[in-house]
Input
Amino acid sequence: MTHPLPDDATTKQWYMEHVNSGLLSLLGFMGLDSAELEAEGWHVRTGDGREFIDCVAAYGSYNFGHRNPAVVSAVKQQLDRMPMSSKLLLNPVQARLAHRLAEITPGELKYSFISNSGTEAVEAAIKLARLRTGKPDIISAKNAYHGKTLGSLSSTHREHFQSPFRPLIANFGVVPFGDLEALDAAISETTAAVMLEPVQGEGGIRVPPAGYLTGVREITKKHGVLLILDEVQTGMGRTGRNFACEREGVVPDILVLAKSLGGGVMPIGATIGTEYVWELFQENPLVHTSTFGGNELACAAACAALDLLEQGGYAEQAEKNGAYFLEALKKLQADFPDVLAEVRGQGMMIGIDCVSKDICELMIASVIEEKVFIAFALNNPEVLRIEPPLHMPPEVIDVVITRLHKACESTRMILEQFSQSQG
Ligand code: PLP
Output
């Protein structure tokens, strides 16, 4: 039996009554309270007949575009063969994915724990670090975003998200992002690991100074603590390298992936570690488990995504297209300094500082009006983030820039009207 989709009005009503009425209001304010019907590449179509260019890509989950045919086909084949297994026997698709991850990730990273999301993959990293070292402390960076389950949230340093849930998990320290001296001083006898994003995503697309990751690796080695790199958002080609840590040739003890690892078709998370980190699974193989983690459908999608990453030139395209996008945005910023304060990024991970949070909100509404998806950074609502599929070509980027130009004009007009009304 197939269920027909509810129409727009019914969808809204059911969001109001059964999903999240606050979210419905927020989406309504931004002009996004329409049902999403279909998507392909960077196009998303709604029930009310609009077609958007997607420059958010589910916060970096569609590096290979929406419904990439290679990933869809791999998942369809797996669906017909065996969508999920009994969990009591060996899972060859998970074995293949773990093998592929060991091949494609840098250095000595060798073993993978497969889960269903970014935050679960971070939880596994935190637990493994504590298990391996027998120490409790995890140090992460100010404005970091590592997810919202309780362990991850304890390292997601934004009051707005943390304060309703205190007390959080103890022993989570915080240091300024990009500051090596502060990190060196913060590590103590009880530190298990330092956990960082190579480029902060939700913190507002913060690219650290060159040499920072190299310095972090040296400091963690000097103190004998583990380095966890959370590449949930920066991984899978996003920053112009397969994994952002490769830009400086830094290899962590634990690498965390999710989002685009699922090829934009299946949810998945992966926590990848060295043999040293994994040793304790030998003694206690069930110390950390997940019923659906490693399911065949998600693993088939991830294997197809890794093939695309390796053979499709996606990281190279991110580097090239990202540089083109950044240059065009810098020109836009120069034309509208009263609206946009700064533009920065790495590959196809670009942040635009608006002059204020209110201007950022006005900009989002105007950009949506122009049928481009854009969003603010969760830990820094003054920053607009641009994270499109990596292969979005210059001619589509030009269309986006024209639309952003119009949105800047509308925002400027509203600001002028407001200042006139204030006398
Ligand atoms: N880590 C980073 C760097 C992220 O950007 C995110 C999500 O945006 C997460 C972890 C959490 O991932 P998820 O939303 O899949 O739980």
